[in-house]
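Table S5 (text form). Sequence records supplied for joint modeling of the two-component complex.
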Amino acid sequence: MVKELSVVGKRVPLVDAQARVTGTAKYTTDIQLEGMLYGKILKSPYAHAKIVSIDTSKAEALPGVKLTLTYRDVPKIQYVSNPQTVGIADMYVLEDEVRCVGDEVALVVAESEDVAREATKLVDIKYETLPAVFDPEEAIKPEAPKVHTGSESNILSTTVEEWGDLEKGFGEADVIQEDTIKVQRVSPVPLEPHACVATWDKSGNLTVWETTQIPFGARQWLSKILDVPLNKIRIISRYVGGAFGGKNDVSRYLFLAALASRKAHKPVKIVYNREDEFLLAPTRHPMVFDVKIGAKNDGAITAMQIKAIVDTGNIASVGPAQTAVLPFLGIVPQYIHPNFKYEGYCVYTNYLNSGSYRGWGAPEISFAIESVLSTIAQKLDIDPIEFRLKNIIPDPGGAASVSLQECVTKGTEKIGWYEKWKGYVTPVEVNGSKKRGIGMALTKHDYGIGLSSAIVKINEDGSVHFLTGTMDPGTGSNTSQAQLVAEELKVPLENVTVTNTDTETTPYDLGSYGSRTMCAGGTVAKAAAAEAKHKLFEIAAPMLDVTSDALDIGDGRVFISAEPEKGVSIAEVASKSVIIGEASGSVLPETSALQSLGAQFAEVEVDTETGQVEVLKMVAVHDVGKAINPECVEGQIVGCIKQGIGYALSEEFIRDPKTGATLNPSYLDYEVYSWLDMPKIDCIIVETTDPHRLTPYGCRGVGEPPLTTPHTAIINAIHNAIGIRFKELPVTPDKVLRALGKA
Amino acid sequence: MPEEKQESGEILRREFSKDTDSVIGEAKVPTYVCHYCSAEFDTLDAIKAHIEAEHAVEGSLATEEGLIRLTVNGETHELNIEPEWTLADVLREKLKLTGTKVACNEGTCGACTVLIDGKPILSCMTLAIECEGKQVETIEELAEGGQLHPIMEAFIEHHGVQCGFCTPGQIMSTKALLERNPNPTEEEVKEALSGNLCICGCQPKIIESVLAAAKKIKET
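The corresponding structure-token record, covering 963 residues in total, follows.
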């Protein structure tokens, strides 16, 4: 008998909406402490240089300046900026070598931001400029200038995966398509900039407020670099104004703030200004893909060969880890390719820090592969949807196939695919210079793994306190996880208070990334609540003269299932003992258990006079297994699509080819989509069940899957409208006009 | 030309442009718009004179060294500030009203939006000293005494918020919109909020929230 769910699956308001909406929520940038000092980062003007000398005396002499930190004042311990990368350590807190325009050189700490900023101009530095390389296709060459002086090569890591027989596979193909696909650097540019406030107490305990997705990872790194045990470090990351993967690294400012605070015996706050945010925050990796795919006339793929150059910028971060798994991300592994070779090269360049950004390689490689496959399908004159479904049925008749088919069916219906599609290069409609086209793409994304834990306490009055290490940057994880707890204990959601992301009080969580907060974090939340319930039953059982398996819970009571009128209030039970439920663990992936499948459809209008591409409509259908809070799920889908449209059409870093300086480090010139350009987005939630699913109510992650497809669907739609296949993003108006021979 | 001047001494705009029509390649005269009352002026001097005459307040303490009286949410504070401090910094650092967020500090995102005499203004691009004698309203006013403004209720009920960093600015712009246009269309909402960047993607839900707020306000 399936019980009716009382709060799971409901569009309940966010538990912390009031705090955010009234402005009372304290973000890191809002933290103000007694005697607090302000740190400003001095950034390198050169793409590559050795610091020959650095004299901070004039800066320190400016009234109001408390101290400065240079490479001479920081621990000489090498580390890597992201815990997902193992076996590599390539950076120091500060060094005497800078490797990109914007690289951190020194910290100035003063009584006010204004004074600190003025003082940075007084730091006297003599640089010896070194040759620099910005293009990853140049940097990979053996003769290229070395980004890390003294290294033999700019290739940080190489991954080769192969099976079958490529030559045989291509030999069997009726059609072969070879293309080079390039994707650009983009940044999530969250509204709240990176910020941290560090303060020490007299016993040597460090407290840091930081805008981080990985407070426990940050704590580990601080412990290592500062040589302080974990139990003397507290990281708080309660409210963060957007993250999207960009706050997933452990950045230099964290160590600098802690070191400066220790030296000054005062709290130190460092906030990136908008230029800092563009130059220092992790971005998506630019990538160059050489793709060769062979297929038979019936559309079956016979061979696939991929070479990827991944531009990791001047630091490793997650570059090697991502490069190693690229062909296993997104929809790519679903395409049956019995003969396969992948070569991935993670390459340093003297440019910005590539790191994690929503999708983590899947949007990049999915686009590359799907672009080539679209061309093959066109050459074979096979309908694009039919071609894809033919090649990516992972388990015919099984859960994943059912899921994908449902997503495709609902999506084609909503956008009117079959009424509008007239063939690959026949536009849907032509109005003067404006041509309309439609395109689609499919997605599959894995998620959910890694260690999480949760605590559920039931107070003596029956009210519930839920503690989670999951950081909620706006995804609504606080609410969705609390819904799981409330459902388990059958209490109203208002009876559950949530404390999140404080390493002193909330238990360990790997981090809010990888679309894992509901699958991993939610699993332990539900389990912790279940354990608390079990403890209630154990205490209540003798009170009601039954065994605990005869009991049930609801309406604030523990009662005998067979005789519901016989029961005691939760408060009565909880006041007899201490009721704490806890759970920890790692959600283990099983076949198809953790896949998030979906389909997206785009309708665009290309103005062949101006080159402008307008996205008229997007339809996104995603199987989330169970939408714990459909509002939060739809919020993730819309946010992903917005970022995907920018990725396809407008977002990019513009770099001076000679100096390596970024020319557009502001919202004015880095073009994100917002109010007046966003299309109508139809979100359709699909909930198919999978008997193997190990997650709460079968839920699947949705933070990233909707960003693996929108750009592909849009580029396909542009192709449908004007018959041009763009192989480099973003597709800006000048590129459209050039392709049309009009510029 | 002198005979074409009006008695008031003003040269009519169309007379001026009639003259420029005959000059090839002359640059168009820029229009200066007063951000307090939207009056338009052709020269910088003219708009400066207008602001001093119409919008400066008598009995101002601004002439004394660094002292100003700043009225925020109905309460007047006497503050000693530097002339170059922005209103955003003074609100957040001096008055501890951190509801107003600073995201870009260069006037490109709208997160710092407050109302000055009912008009939505970027507080990071406004000097605190120019706010003397004006009514400054921040997000904190809409939740005064624990009572939530209908706009706030609507944003909560209709999920107009994800990370929340843009939200105070969105709400202040919404308040200004609904006060001048209680029945906005979806297009009018987009236009009014187009200066408030949202990175998370709440735009569709914010529209829903604003339209719901309009309805709520009408019903009260």
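Note: The longest strand of chain A covers residues 301-313.
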